[in-house]
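Chain X:
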Amino acid sequence: MGLSACSGENKDMPMASVKADKQPVVEVEVAAKNNDVATVNNIDIWPKLAISLAKDAELEQRTSSLMEKMTLEQKIAQMIQPEIRDITVEDMRKYGFGSYLNGGGAYPNDDKHATPADWIKLAEDMYQASMDDSVDGIAIPTMWGTDAVHGHNNVIGATLFPHNIGLGAANNPDLIRDIAAITAKEVMVTGIDWVFAPTVAVVRDDRWGRTYEGYSEDPRIVKAYSHSIVEGLQGKVGDDFLSDQHVISTVKHFLGDGGTEKGIDQGQNLDSEQDLFDIHAQGYVGGLTAGAQTVMASFNSWQGKKIHGEKYLLNDVLKDKMGFDGFVVGDWNGHGQVDGCTNESCAQAANAGLDVFMVPTSAWKPLYENTIAQVKDGEISQARVDDAVRRILRVKFRAGLFEKPSPANRAISGKTELIGAKAHRDVARQAVRESLVLLKNNANILPLAPNSKVLVAGDAADNIGKQSGGWSITWQGTDNLNEDFPGATSIFAGIEQTVDAAGGQAWLSVDGQFDATNKPDVAIVVFGEEPYAEGNGDIDNLEYQRGDKRDLALLQSLKSQGIPVVSVFISGRPMWVNPELNASDAFVAAWLPGTEGDGVAQVLFTEIDGKVNADFAGKLSFSWPTTPQQTSVNVNDEDYQPLFAYGYGLKYGEKSQVSDTLSEDNFASDAKLETLALFERAVKAPWKLIIGTETSMETVSSSIQKNDALTLRTFDKAVQEDARLVNFNGTGMGFVGLISNFPRDLRAYSNSNAALSVLIKTTNKVEKPVMLGVACDRDCRADVDIAGALNESVGTWQTISVDLKCFANQQVEFGNINTPFYIATEGKAEINFSDLLIVPNAANDATITCPAP
């Protein structure tokens, strides 16, 4: 709303570790490391912060007076945050929710092209309903929270800035402050009070799908940026703090989201408590001292415990020791992931210090009712509720919500000329220029003369959605057209404008074809990752276009024709692009620049008179990998051998420090894959057990669960609850399987002659097909009938394994697997299963084998 370094072996790689002459350093104080071995729950590690905003006695008294008038039901309503797709204005009038949100890809009236007037109307209607005391007898203004993470990115026409990874490369905290202030203005135009930013994750493994939401692998940059962006969003304490030009900010996600094992989103952080502070908490030191009013709890676990239910971190550390007196909001149903909780009920999270439940979907109503009951039963203390409500009201009083006009009548509400204003786009363009990192520049081919003949190729060249990345109008940043970004400029459009103005010629040919009679002087190829957000972007190694090197073929085709090639790489993380680097005369890491693509042209081309227009200023805030497997390479690692070091970035006139003969060995044959356990005694994270029919699907949350087609129960095979029994009743199609919140990248296994293996037993002979299969994220699935194999050993445990090629032959995308196992049948059957594994190099001996496609 991210470990241990695994540096790849260096084989025949000239210039394999290009060191920076000067690393970007933000001069901010970093807490000294304790040389002693860190232990869990060492409260002395955490500092008392010098928070710039002190409690106000009059405000506290106003809060106390208001709380004396509130019923338990009204207090719990302040702790409930539903989503705009799941509540009505009348729900707000009846319950008086303390806040509500729009998730990524949610809009007023479910209209992607909702106008600013539509956003304002919804904000006004919700506010007026919350202030209507005719139903509940009290008037407390509600708040609207939104994910404005690189500008007001849900709103058509807004200025979209480079994503955080690019801003980190710019290493300019003052620029960040300006960007945040502009974002606040554009948000305020639409009547919204509160943004879920900044993300202050310190990314340690670039396989993480949220890498681009991190400013740097270096906590110093993150700490400084957090302070700047909070000041930009909220205003400076003692100056224009939470004025009518500013919004409430949220420092997120507390804590350790950038340090999960293998970069798995919502996964497990096993760092010591000392590292948790030294690395992952520095953004909170910066943001909270600047006066951030809210903190969002993280999906990840730390040392085996989900943060949403971790009292030590949320309460003892954040609130008691560090002194944070704002409120903690959950992430999207994050409370439901706490052990013993569901989306509809989680006393554990409230008791741990969660003040506001983010509860989208219809789960808000049972959660509201269950939380009230839990307080009445003593499971949640009245004191804990009062603390949460006091914190929520304190923030609302500080923000002036009780005094400010309603959303439609605030100072800049409705001033639509501010959304995408020229001055705002100028700052975004500056951010694009400063974020670009020049990795290679053979023979100083850059900058280019603008009066040249320029071929512009690549599928990202004229694609504003792709250059903007995730969290751009839609949650994933997909399904957008250039027309969805009015006022924006694609990278090609910026190049064309620059070249035309100088009397040159620029033309777009995505596939690189051109008229032989009009050979270009240079080709600029713009290519890179497709947009993604959160776990949808998790990958299992950093090779770009593994198994489908179409962009490399384009580069090589142009180069083979004697055309100098300038590569502009669009990505949300550093990636292994050695072959693409070799095929390029110049190579620019452009990250995800947002809507102002013309900022790229301003750096690539000189002025008409040949003078440099804008030099490269960006320096890597993330180390660049030497091999695809070098996924966790971070500055100050003991064994630090990146291809391009943290802080690297050429300026014009500087000699390239990388050769044209980098090793193109992706080490795929050397990869030592371990068996992947999906279910072994219990379901393994990040998977969850599901059951379903042709028309329904539900997550298993009980030891016995049923639907119209089947009953699933736990049973003890060797140890407690290490197996599952599925009774299919034969009345229709039923299935049991595993699912993840996000698709997972299992290409390493599909490429390693692997097999899906399950220990299984059927009690009786089955009469109808029993399908064992896998499914991927885009409505694709593949399966094989294992009925014959089951019937060969009725009543006996046996291992049935299936060559993964059987699924690949059916066009399953192993880079996007969200269901790595399911069993489905229409027939009557009693099936037991236990150990469920994906085993490398086991396909040849599998029960069911298939030839390569």
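Chain Y:
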Amino acid sequence: MFQKRTEIINNLKKISYLLPIGIFALALVTLYKQLHHMHLEEIHNVFSHISSADIFLVLVFTFLSYIILSFYDVLAVNYINHWIPIDKIVISSFISTSISYNIGFNFLTSGSLRYRLYSFYGLTLLEIGKIVTFCGLTFWVGISFIGGTVLTFYPLKLPESISIPVIYFKVVGVLLLLILFSYFFFCITQRSFKIKNHEINFPKINIAFLQLIVATLDYVLVGCVFFFLLPHYGHVSYLYVLTVFLIAQMIGLISTVPGGLGVFETIMLFMLSPYFHSNDILGTLVVFRLVYYFIPFIVGTVLLSHNEIIVRKKMLTSSHRRTISKISAFIPQIFAVLIFFAGMVLLFFEALPPQIENIRLMATIIPLSLIESSSLLSSMIGVLLLILAKGLWKRIDGAYVLSLMVLFLGAVLSILKNFNYIEALILFLTFLALLPNRNYFYRKSSLMNQLFSKDNVIAICLVIISFIWLGFFFHRHADYSHETLWQFGIDSHISRFLRSVVGSIFVLVVVGILKLLGSSSKDIRLPNEEDMDLAVKQIRTSTDTKGNLVLLKDKYLIFDEKREAFIMYGISGKSWICMGDPIGNVDNIKDLIWDFHETANLHQGWTVFYEVSEKFIPYYIDIGLKLIKIGEEAKIKLSEFNLEGSAGKDFRYSVKRMEKAGYHFEVIPCEYALDHEKELKYISDAWLEIKHTSEKKFSMGFFDIDYLSNFPLAVVKKEDKIVSFANVWLSAKNTELTIDLMRYDPAIADRTMDYLFVKLMLWGKENGYEYFSLGMSPLSGLEDRNLAPLWTKIGAAIYKHGEYFYNFKGLRAYKNKFNPIWEPRYIALPSNFKQVSALKDVALLISGGTKELLFK
């Protein structure tokens, strides 16, 4: 059953890769059939019919459309009854809308962006979810009204090539109107529904009418943008253009192809071809894409980047990071996009027919063979740049060096093949921009071991398909034969293009084979003896006692390439959860964190680092994680701990009282732990029973004599009988000691643990240890302030009022008796909606399962 389900999931993943690519390819084939009669001279003049006045007019309509779009969010914020400054709402709406329109998967992308932006203003996850849903409803209110009205009552005259009966469109129109009427009925009757005990009401009828007005104005304005770009737009009615536009946009959204690219254009060409020449429609579509999608996308991306830089700078400054000047979350990503764009430039210029005069000029200077070779190498370099973009995104030093070499070579080849100074200038400027940024690309990792995600694969495939389509489209009037590929000459454009296609595919095949032959990921398996021996060796030289948890042998291990550092982790749901900071050689930690992150992504998981210190926060931020404070760890400086004076009065009393009652403290060496197995097991079982709990996992030890025999045991005895015990973790260089598993005989008062703590601290002081860790106090140190992040407010509220579930305050107060130093501890986890799932996965992993989480 499990195997069958796994097979179904894998098939669905393949479909998720192939579906957008297949739809895009089908759209290009259809476009080819629609535009096959066009000549190159017509394409050069395709924009001539659009006047400056028309461009100005559509820019105004575009501006007004995005202003109206922002009222989607204004109404949504009003609906949830939360005040946010109007300018903040407009900016947040513009960023999320302009970017999601181009990327595709609108609900997910706009939802994620809205979550990221609105969470800064104190909105809860539920409130942001309501905003996203409300905006989606507003969109469909507009679709239902405009689409329902025009499809039902407007006589749509279809081209002869479309054999769909008009009645089908009328049925769709009626269904859309019924959906609209149902929505208004629910708003009038104030219906509500529940999601996990949260009651969600439909908007009031006045807000619903405002939704209708706003969404209708939005579509009217977008329709105006497209209508006034059409040449001689008096030849066709505005209503027809609006209807066709609505149908094309809906099909484009359903296709999930980013921005509906190709799909939208195909529908528009079909529906408008009876009224306009194909080249006029093509010009309108290109300018519409540029004005309504691309320009707002650039502005939205700049605004989002500016917002993220400000937020990250505040976070790093507030955390007193010395590395703030060295950290940038966006420089590698920006250059990855630029390199990808440079690859597109090389490929698309190879698809376009070159200027024959330029080739003839170059042929008088250099041999024809060098021109032909330069053309072939340019296409291969273009594909290589598409692939290298991922390496730059992941900060790999080899990708940086190779990108510089390839960019410079590409610029030279652009001159040699046909004196294409525009292409050469783009590549050379990218080279100059990348050159001084060596310090951002620090990872010593193999390029062949890098993960190519679904989005990477789809993006590269779409570019390659577009390159091939453009080439065949612009050379569609050429005569093809078996000898075409091997023809060489100044005028042999089609031959050069075909060789470029072969060269591009060759690079993809070679990279694919190397990827298959290489090691694509780290093994996912519990550690073997060799791994354990290596991990133990690194634990013994580490000043971090948390590494001792690896001796439970219940965690997976991942080592760096030199096997000088490791991460121990567990998998729960889709979360790959690292326990504590990485252990080992500090110089290798940066690359190890990246390796772990990429391995998790390779298996469609996301990365979480649980209970980490401040040491490696910049690295967690580098891989895109968000830091949330989850509590503070109490550490006692042993050189200052003693039983003298007023400060040690209570401790002196506890020790004297216990020893007077016949108790004494002892440290049993690890090699003698097995001799006391039955005694220890009895105490542990009795303690679990009286506490009505089960063994926790992952973040703390559980009773296993093989595990306990790795450590000294701190015990309290009455005569020769053990009444309480704890295993002692010791760090290298006598930096720190702490205890892990703590148990006492319920028949004896639990005051034995106070006695054990005090005596163990004194033992540690005598043996030269610097600190004794009392462990973390969950949620302590979180401040409930007006400008505090949402999680901090929630955590502070739980800490303040959650005594019924856990004695948060009592634990903090108990540890405060020892006058400790408090150090913050964090969880690093993905942003957006993944956070809730990741926190749930951590809780399940620690508790040992759903039943244990709910019932202790």
